[in-house]
Amino acid sequence: MKTSLKVILLLIAVVAVVGSLLFFAKLRLDPPRAISREGTQAGQVQQLIKGVRQGLDSDTLNQRWFAAHHLIGFLDDNQLLRTGESDTLKMQLMEHYVPAFARKCELKFGWSVWEEKELSQMRQRIKLLRKQENSKGQNIIALQPSLNGQLDRIEGVLNRYDRACALADGYGYKSLADSRQRIREAREYQADTYLRKNTHLMHELDSVAVRLQRSHYRYLERSVEALANYGTNWEDFERRYDDVEREVNLFADSSRAVYGRYLGVADLKSDMRHHYRQADHAFNDKSAWDYIQDIFF
Length: 297
Hints:
Layout: H1 2-29, H2 40-50, H3 58-77, H4 85-109, H5 116-130, H6 145-169, H7 176-190, H8 199-206, H9 208-225, H10 234-259, H11 266-284, H12 288-296
Helix pairs in contact: 2-3, 2-4, 3-4, 4-6, 5-6, 6-7, 7-8, 7-9, 9-10, 9-11, 10-11, 11-12
């Protein structure tokens, strides 16, 4: 009886040891892959996501976004998240990061000096965010209209800034209609809620009308100077002279209305008369006395 009991107890011990070894081996060779949202890994990601928006500056904010983004990717690549769980975490990350990012950008737009390096970083960041996709290949930002709208607002400021800078830099005269349009646009940019904080840009836009007027005047100077080349016949010269005269008179008549101030054209007209007399003498074979009379009378 005692011997039978000992045998039974020994068999139970052997089974327990073997079972433990088999369970341990299975655990090592086939670890659990599906971690619930309350699991350690997912919980760490969520804590990281919650801390994203608490970045004290843009660099810290971006670093925390990258840390959470890479952790989600690592867990997903190693099948440590359930199907669709990474998409949920990615969306949560965007919901925490984008509003904080937009706020940081708006604060910088409130500065009187805008650093081109920081503006470039904003553009790159927006481009990166718009490229993020979920497991179905869907654009994450596009799935959230509110997040997309916040990025659109920041991108809109950057685009208007670029156009305003191009307007301030490109002040070559093309036509009176073009000058009117560009001056109108400069005033619109000066009234922009964000752009008007940029003191350098405002100064450049404020001088657009003056620089366009000067460019217009230099254009007329070149046109008048071209009259020194009389051409091949009197009729052709008279036609060119009449065209230049119309443009000079138009500038004089509309300068104040278009550019905001009057700029005299007396010197231009004096040079025009000189070229006219020279051409008249050359083409119509006037005598020296006739030429003198034309000058003084």
